[in-house]
Write a structure and sequence with these properties.
It comes from Sphingobium cloacae. It catalyses: (S)-2,3,4,5-tetrahydrodipicolinate + NADP(+) + H2O = (2S,4S)-4-hydroxy-2,3,4,5-tetrahydrodipicolinate + NADPH + H(+); (S)-2,3,4,5-tetrahydrodipicolinate + NAD(+) + H2O = (2S,4S)-4-hydroxy-2,3,4,5-tetrahydrodipicolinate + NADH + H(+). Catalyzes the conversion of 4-hydroxy-tetrahydrodipicolinate (HTPA) to tetrahydrodipicolinate. With 254 residues, the protein is of the alpha/beta class. The chain has two domains: 136 residues, Rossmann fold; 107 residues, Dihydrodipicolinate Reductase, domain 2. Strand 6, helix 4 and strand 7 form a beta-alpha-beta unit. Bound molecules: NADPH dihydro-nicotinamide-adenine-dinucleotide phosphate and ligand LZUJQKHR. Ligand LZUJQKHR binds next to helix 6.
């Protein structure tokens, strides 16, 4: 039976993944955290050595922090084990590390593991492709008060989908963090706004606004179970793939 190892095991997502795996009868080999103390479940200790966890697991899931990504990828490459990266707040350097690791092992990276968000991304891509750049794209997200990165990984995933639909590079067209005298909106820009508060698991809205009409496409996560289920499904799928970089589309059949 495939066993899963969890980087960031003591966090909100780490614990949700362990619970979903346990309920589905999927083995959890163990987990790591910054400090490496406590238990993930009765008899499953949380350690601090990614290399040991990678050796002991069949497939790894990383929901931790960007600063730990390099060590997690190194551990998986050294052990020859696939890894699903759900951590957000990744920058260009992190994506380069993922591309490099994906030459040796299967790596699935995604800002959101849920079916609903990945279907939403497909709809956004289609809408952006059909509407043209006189329809302004704005992406609004809200998350719980503990979230440390913005825009969310999901907002960026949706922005990438809109950019793909338009045939442009998101990096050249994104407008983030508007404040003060910003000047008028650039034609063709993809805008982002982030709200933080309370216990919101994850709300995303993509607004396509034209002269006189607006289309709003959105998704609301009611809890973290949807992310945990998607992560476990993605990890099990990844175990059967050759080295390469993947996202959730193939896992979910989208
Ligand atoms: N792709 C997706 O579908 C989703 C992605 N996420 C993303 O997953 C990440 C985690 O989210 P969440 O669980 O809510 O956050 P938490 O802060 O609850 O958990 C992160 C965990 O990572 C641990 N950690 C910190 N440094 C290391 C390290 N060097 N090695 C191993 N573990 C470490 C933290 O430990 P400590 O507390 O001691 O610092 C903490 O337990 C975020 O980036 C979030 O945006 C979240 C939900 C869905
Ligand atoms: O930090 C979170 O909680 C979430 N992070 C992911 C993101 O940045 O999009 C996914 C989900 O929205 C919850």
């Amino acid at each position: 039976m495939t066993s899963i190892g969890i980087f960031g095991a003591a966090g909100r997502m780490g614990r949700a993944i362990a619970q979903v795996a346990a309920e589905a009868g999927i083995a959890v080999a163990g987990g790591t955290d910054r400090d490496g103390s406590g238990e993930l479940a009765p008899g499953i200790a949380i350690g601090s050595d990614p290399a040991a966890l990678a050796r002991e697991s069949d497939v790894l899931i990383d929901f931790s922090v960007p600063a730990a990504l390099a060590a997690h990828l190194d551990a998986c490459v050294a052990a020859g084990k696939p890894v699903l990266v759900g951590t957000t707040g990744l920058e260009a350097g992190h994506h380069a590390l993922i591309d490099k690791a994906a030459k040796a092992i299967p790596v699935l990276q995604t800002g959101n593991t849920s079916l609903g968000v990945n279907l939403l991304a497909a709809l956004v891509e289609q809408a952006a492709a059909r509407l043209g750049d006189d329809w302004d794209v704005e992406i609004v997200e809200m998350h719980h008060r503990h979230k440390v990165d913005a825009p969310s990984g999901t907002a960026l995933l949706l922005g990438e989908a809109a950019a793909r639909g338009r045939g442009i590079a998101l990096a050249d067209h994104s407008e983030r963090g508007r404040d003060g005298i910003t000047g008028a909106r650039a034609k063709g820009a993809i805008g982002f706004a982030a709200l933080r508060g309370g216990s919101v698991a994850g709300d995303h809205q993509v607004i396509l606004a034209s002269e006189g009409e607006r289309i709003e496409l959105g998704h609301r996560a009611e809890n973290r179970v949807i992310f945990a289920r998607g992560a476990v499904k993605g990890a099990l799928w990844l175990g059967g793939q050759p080295a390469g970089r993947y996202d959730m589309k193939a896992v979910l059949g989208l």
